[in-house]
Hints:
By secondary structure, this protein is α+β, with helices and mostly antiparallel strands. It has one domain (5-200): Glutaredoxin (3-Layer(aba) Sandwich). The protein has helices at 14-30, 42-47, 54-57, 59-76, 96-105, 111-123, 132-142, 146-153, 156-171, 193-200, and strands spanning 5-9, 34-38, 179-182, 185-188. It has a 4-stranded mixed sheet with strand order 2-1-3-4, sandwiched between helices. Helix 1 (14-30) links the parallel strand 1 (5-9) and strand 2 (34-38). Helix 1 (14-30) packs parallel to helix 4 (59-76). The protein is globular.
Amino acid sequence: MARPLTFWFEFASPYSYLSAMRIDAVAEAAGVKVTWRPFLLGPIFKAQGWDTSPFSIYPAKGQNMWRDIERRAEKYAVPFKRPDLSRAGAFPQNSVLAARAAIACLSEPWGPEFCRRVFRAAFEKDLDISQPDVIADCVEAAGGVDRIYMHMAYSHTQKVALREHTDHAQRLGIYGAPSFTVDSELFWGDDRLEDALEWALRD
């Protein structure tokens, strides 16, 4: 019997976007149950002495990352639009509100669709996902009532839950997104999704 897989994602991560667009289909085909788990990379980066994404700290790494995303998006037939990096806060985006909303929405069957809508807003439409109206639109499009879930996103409960998710990720040794865990095994990167699924199917 397949073991469950946990999908650790960060809304500011373009590689997480690629995984989010395909994980449910490939996991269903493999017979593996997936749990979506949003967290924040910011505190993890700060623990390593970084004040932003390493893709921003090292320009050559960042330039190659964007081209790699374009190639992988083409491979998976996933629409992708490079963010306008001249816009303040374009990358990495502030994903706190989106992650808090996701924790609330993932209690519903349409939660993963909400997450995909947020990723599309960020990486297909180049919208600012720190804006409440953008997140509210994603809630409505996914099948929720925006005023209910936006209220929950701003609640103390969701703030604490997001902090707990991020602390849990750190305890697991997660250092980037997306990451996938199966029992105590950690797989990092969109290109390790299939490896994680294979591990979940091992006897």
